[in-house]
Design goal:
Keywords: Membrane, Transmembrane, Transmembrane helix
Number of helices: 3
Protein name: Major facilitator superfamily (MFS) profile domain-containing protein
Distance between the termini: 67 Å
Organism: Penicilliopsis zonata CBS 506.65
Number of domains: 1
InterPro entries: MFS_trans_sf
């Protein structure tokens, strides 16, 4: 029975860290190193990386017009 209580203890301690890391580690799929540098220089929040439009994306949009 003690092992079950130990599991609940570690689950309770670990859950806040999992939630924190979910919010603080950005999704970088499909982004180049230059785009990530641009985000970091502009101090974009990690949870806004997927919505932020980079200078390269803006230039491509203008080129299509």
């Amino acid at each position: 029975m003690a092992s079950l209580k130990t599991g609940w203890f570690y689950a309770g301690v670990g859950l806040p860290f999992v939630v924190g890391m979910w919010l603080l580690i950005p999704e970088t799929t499909g982004r180049s190193a230059a785009e990530l540098d641009e985000f970091l220089e502009a101090k974009v929040k990690p949870w806004r990386f997927h919505k932020t439009i980079t200078a390269v994306q803006r230039a491509l949009e203008e080129e299509k017009r």
